[in-house]
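Researcher: Batch entry, complex prediction.
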Amino acid sequence: MSPTVLIARKEAGEILASGRGQGWLLALSAILSVLSLLLVSNTELSLLDNAQVVYMMMGTVTALGALLAVALGSDAVAGERERGTLVPLLLAPVTGTEIVLGKMGGQVVAWFATYGLALPYVWAVGSSGQNLAQAVGYLALFGTPVVLTFGFYAYGLSARFVSVRSALLTALITLVLFASPLVMGPGLRDNPIGKAFDAVNPFSAALNSFDSVVIDSQPFTAQAGRLAVAIVWLALSAWFAKRSMERTEV
Amino acid sequence: MLVEVTDLRLSLRGRQILEGVELHMGAGEVYGLLGPNGAGKSTTLSVLIGLRAGSGGRASVLGFDPWPQRREMHRVIGVLPEQAGFYDWMSAPDYLLWVASLYGRDQLAAQVGRRLHQVGLDPVARAPIATYSRGMKQRLGLARALLNDPRLLVLDEPTNGLDPRGRREIHDVLISLSRQGVGVLLCTHLLDDVERLCGRIGIIHRGRTVVEGGLAQLLARRQARSRYRLRMPEPPAAAAPFPDFKVIAREGEWWHVEIGQTGHPDAVWSALLASGWAIAEIHREGGGLESLYLSLTNEDLKA
Amino acid sequence: MKPVITLLAACLLAGFAALAGAAARLDMALSPDRSNPSSPQMGDHMRFISVIRNGGDTPAQGVVAWISLVQVDPGHEQPMDLEDWSAHKAVTRAVLAPGEQVTVDWPMRVIQAGDYRVVISAVERDTPHIITSPFIDFHVRQKPVVESARILPVALGVPLALGGLLGWRLRRRR
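Model: Structure tokens for the complex:
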């Protein structure tokens, strides 16, 4: 079995099988449950139609996935350094690229666990509305590159910074910046600066695609440009993680 | 030669950390690397095990250039770092199985069990490593270093956290390995361990090797000169009338001196007193490795 | 005798007439705003405009006007609590001079499907009865919204299941 797969399996086991990992999933489900219960109990929210609610749920799941990716990525190298497990890993006959890909494999598992956890909620809020199948598909299609972009980015910071705290703080600030379209309405983004930011922001690419597909029923061809933005960011952040790993100091 | 290091230099962020380290070690030898805190021992090890590249000089480990050929070298060396970290949520056998599979080893389970038994740990324990004591983790670290049947074992403070019986057990393991032809490079502060295990030593001070050689030869040379500590409230009026008498250092009223083989101590004291040296006390200082180590690394004493 | 009674009656009538003429007389008109959706559905915003005019000879003192909404679906007739519909439920005016009128906007968000009747009511201090505007009837269409029957089992079930799994793991470890 390749070292990448071995490391990914170990990471996935730590995330899913350990008490800490299951605690994470429980916390995520609690957040989604609170949001769902607000949808039925709050008058303002309960007037939203299904498509809007599904869109809101997709944005929330993507943001939560990115948050988890940032937490895992920030710990990936700096955490191992702090716990004394980085040196043994570097002394194994494993390349830096294999370590990066293995750890990110663990993040892929974590994201798909989050995605799987969110599916019942998406079904529950959207089953009597439109474009539910598209919502499920596009959440995976756009959510995956956006989440992994932040995962790779946090990994790169973790390799460069000595402490988990520094890496996590920097990654969270970046995440809040890029996820700001989630809290700002379209009106606030309707100016030259907002539009320019929207055009290059992978989070905006995902949200605008969710809007376009689920609410406006637009086809895939209308989303191709946005998907390209998300994939370019993924490639850039993966390169950043690889370069950072090569310069890791022990 | 298993390990050959000549004039190794390393600078980090504009600071010269290593300024000429020498290390020469053959197969089956147990080599002790000594030095005060901050001397550059761990940095030297990090270069030799391929964790960082040196800035100058030459290093060869099992015929490999440590930095560019580190992947190949890692397959044939075993390392126990000073800070032995593990994935605490795993059990020891599961952890070693995972490490062994990174090396692509066949017959993993048997090898894991054998090494755990060799270091005195239960091969079938299911408890997570988080429940292990410091000594147990140290043993587990040694088992990890031995998993790939290394030709060279590099150990940084291997008996940290072990009780006297545990230390003796680890010593026995290391002696047994050296008899099988495995080289053991040992970095430690415990001079007792060095005296018991090591055939060769090197002492590093301020990033430079100050002495290297066979332990027995170095100590024999050391014994040729006797060292004393004299208390003199007033500095001597005249120089010592002996060529083979040397003042090493001074700490206030205390003077550290050496008398060579040609001088008999009693005759030396009589002559010094007669020439006006107001010696109030005379104490003999211990010979052996501690004395050698202190004399070569003592930068606080001023002559 | 007959002339006396006639005269008394005339005086009484004149007196009542005088009283009536001396009181303020509030007239109210109510109309929907032009921007209201022609076929509103749940969640839409609507606006009604009332004009309150003092048609009497004397000032109207302490005028209070309020909006009322009633559901008129057969079998579901009931007054509606405007708590979630509108924050603007009443206006007051200390004095409304003779001939003066005041225009009041009544915004609301229609949050439930059904047939409704809206009316504005008013009182002033010296008039012993309530004055009402004409009714406006409107229909609010249903729209598909989130169904609590699906959400509750998921919102409660998923965390419970995960929590149970975690608890089982912890117990097994002990």
